[in-house]
Here is the input.
Amino acid sequence: MKAIETNGLTKFYGRARGIENVDLTVEEGEIFGFIGPNGAGKSTTIRTLLGLIKKSGGSASVLGMDIEKDKERILKEVGYLPSEASFYGGMRVKEVLEFSAKLRKKDCREEAKRLSERLGLELDRKVGELSLGNRKKVGIVAAMQHKPRLYILDEPTSGLDPLIQREFFALLRERNEEGATVFLSSHVLSEIGRYCTRAGILREGRLIKEDSVDNLTGTGVKRVTLHGADRLPEIDGMRDVNICASGMSFLYSGRADALVKALAGLSFEDITLTDPDIEDVFMHYYEREGE
Amino acid sequence: MTLFFHELKRDRIKLIVWTAAIAFMLCLSILIYPQMTSQMSEMGDMFAEMGGFSQAFNMDKINFGEFSGYFAVECGNVLGLGGAFFAALLGISALAKEERERTAEFLLTHPVSRSYVVSRKLAAVIAEVLILNIAVALASFLASLAIGEKIGTKLFFSVFLGYLLMQTEIACVMFGLSAFIKGNGLGIGLGAAFVLYFMNILANLTDEAEFLRYITPFSYADGTAIVANGGIEAKYLIPGAAFTLIGIAAAFIKYNRKDIRA
Here is the structure.
């Protein structure tokens, strides 16, 4: 079954574009990364899927259920972490988590305790006094304590220190191994590259690419770094040029023999050809689609 | 019941403070009555001669020498205005506060329908209005016992029922409005309660403004009018009930369609 499937999903806020004709497929059991800069429509997509905002067009289903007709049934199976988690100021962490569990008609006390211990979250603190990172932890526990089938996480690691980030992804991996699907949006591309099996790239409200992370990073694009070079080769298919004191690097997509010919007339001390990391891939698609 | 009790818990300090303040003021007014009775007959004459001013507050129709008349005026001042403000503030913030405090996203991504949220919040608002009025009625009953005065049971109930219905109407209309706004509706709430209060004063002053009585709930909840007429005037209750239902319906319809923006 598909964990998430959208067909031509569109959302306009009045005249302002949210997302347009998004066709997205997330298989059950995968960790899917949703990439795009701020304002690309990642949160709009997520909020439409969760019924917080009404779609303007297209259709979408989550875990095989229609996002409008079966909203409550979907929310029962989903754990959602918003990018900026806010809770009722006067309540203690423990009370917020209990309230969340009660709304789900579940007893999650043990799981909440276990998760809080792993993330270093104090249950007796007042949520109004928490730092951004600790508030995020409350959001994580609230999203995970009922052991949902699908995790929808919007910028999950912002505000978390690196150690907690690692613990958080370890928790996600465990849940994923138990069969849960993870859908996470991020603009931290290394995160997507490290943890996700597949990814989609969103640009100005449109999904411009959706593929496995392996395929995305193996698109025939290479990062060429020339150490000690004084000028760039004249060749088509060159983009994302970086020039620094030790030399220059660029992304190249095209035939290797053409590159070798173009390099022949240049003077440089050393050359490295590497597969692009996910940030390079992102720039590759982003700039190409923008042309 | 989870959300209902959650709401009561969130509002508990607001409820306690408003209830205590209104009960305290009303009891104080009642407790000083014995000292004032000696001057009452003169005051009654004075108010009767003040024309427009007395008319505005219906004081020309009241016998100040009697406790029921005094009680009605004081009730109108304290519970009438205070209760209206409380109900307005409660209603206007009920739905909007989730977006203002950015908790709407948390609440609405649980498996609950928008109608569930609206109905439980509405129930909590009405329950809080009810709690305030019962507490204030009880306190003023005890205070009148303490000074050895009594107003007829029917009149006592009519006065408090009038104020309860008025506050319920204001709360429900503001509740409906609450579904449309995102920010802090404090100004709207207080402003609306004030305007409705002055509509009744205006209607008391001139017959040309008589139609305002069908708009403002202060017309049927006017303590002095209730004492003077011996009960609530039903003809003003009908538009009041209509406004109440419109407020509730608007809340359900709008909130079910509303986009919750981040």
About this structure: Chain B touches chain A through 22 residues (CB under 8 Å). Chain B has a mean pLDDT of 88.
